[in-house]
């Protein structure tokens, strides 16, 4: 009965590496939503506002279904992207790969649940999750068999009008690249992620050199040993948050590509499990 999980159980599920948690509604007898890291960010912000009013244990026993309703009421009047209720986005096992990929891209989501085309005796429609990396991995295996048939694959990524680019590149883009410094408040970084509906933000030094990437999923490090209940979110810096992330999961390597990398090389990198994004960097000059 996922609809009645407490916030504590949601946190534990996501700490175990689940990027998405299906929300089962007993009343409707189906999956009615998906809980993500962005939900935890919103829960965390609401907990921080109420921590002085309600006890820690009482806050953690709030159910996910109650949180969903409270979130809708709390943000319902604000013009915040993605805060309005919408039907669950899903695909069927009979859908073709192109339509599945377009569903993910057009709805700006990282994955989409796959439902059975016909219900069986179990009554549970969810089969699996389709992700862009999984689709890219399949496509790359096919493209590499006949790369000569797709000349665009040999183009440098900097010459193709996709992605989000920084202002200094001079590329025309409807979306400019957001960056943050280590000393910036984490709350500001989280606001950028939610407002722009992006999953990560590059962390750079004063010279604009890449130091790390802070992702929505990194917020789960605050759930380790209930750290979120012992800190003031407004006083936490990006550097503090990264240190907590390192303590929980260890140091990590940023996934990057060069501005001279070909589209096929980029697609190949993005098809690797765990690689959800690439930061485009300039080749080093001597």
Automatic annotation (TrEMBL):
Signal peptide extent: 1-29
One Pfam match: CBS
Gene3D superfamilies membership: CBS-domain
Top-level division of the source organism's lineage: Eukaryota
Keywords: CBS domain, Repeat, Signal
Domain CBS: 173-233
PANTHER family: AMP-ACTIVATED PROTEIN KINASE, GAMMA REGULATORY SUBUNIT, SUCROSE NONFERMENTING 4-LIKE PROTEIN ISOFORM X1
Protein name: CBS domain-containing protein
Organism: Aegilops tauschii subsp. strangulata (Goatgrass)
């Amino acid at each position: 009965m996922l609809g009645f999980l407490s916030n504590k159980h949601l946190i534990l599920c996501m700490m175990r590496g689940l990027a998405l948690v299906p929300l089962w509604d007993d009343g409707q007898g189906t999956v009615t939503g998906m809980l993500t890291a962005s939900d935890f960010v919103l829960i965390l912000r609401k907990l921080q506002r109420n921590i002085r009013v309600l006890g820690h244990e009482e806050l953690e026993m709030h159910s996910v279904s109650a949180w969903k309703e409270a979130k809708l009421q709390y943000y319902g009047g604000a013009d915040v992207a993605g805060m309005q209720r919408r039907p669950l986005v899903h695909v069927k096992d009979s859908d073709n790969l192109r339509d599945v990929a377009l569903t993910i891209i057009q709805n700006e989501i990282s994955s989409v649940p796959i439902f059975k085309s016909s219900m069986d005796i179990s009554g549970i429609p969810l089969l699996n999750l389709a992700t862009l990396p999984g689709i890219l991995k399949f496509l790359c295996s096919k493209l590499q068999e006949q790369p000569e048939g797709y000349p665009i694959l040999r183009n440098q990524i900097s010459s193709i009008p996709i992605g989000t680019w920084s202002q200094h590149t001079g590329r025309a883009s409807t979306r400019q690249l957001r960056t943050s410094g280590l000393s910036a408040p984490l709350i500001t970084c989280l606001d950028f992620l939610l407002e722009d509906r992006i999953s990560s933000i590059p962390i750079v030094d004063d010279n604009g050199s890449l130091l790390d990437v802070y992702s929505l999923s990194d917020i789960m490090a605050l759930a380790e040993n209930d750290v979120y209940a012992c800190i003031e979110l407004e006083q936490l810096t990006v550097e503090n948050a990264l240190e907590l992330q390192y303590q929980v999961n260890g140091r990590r390597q940023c996934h990057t590509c060069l501005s001279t990398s070909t589209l096929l090389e980029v697609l190949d990198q993005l098809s690797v499990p765990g690689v959800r994004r690439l930061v485009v960097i300039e080749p080093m000059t001597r």
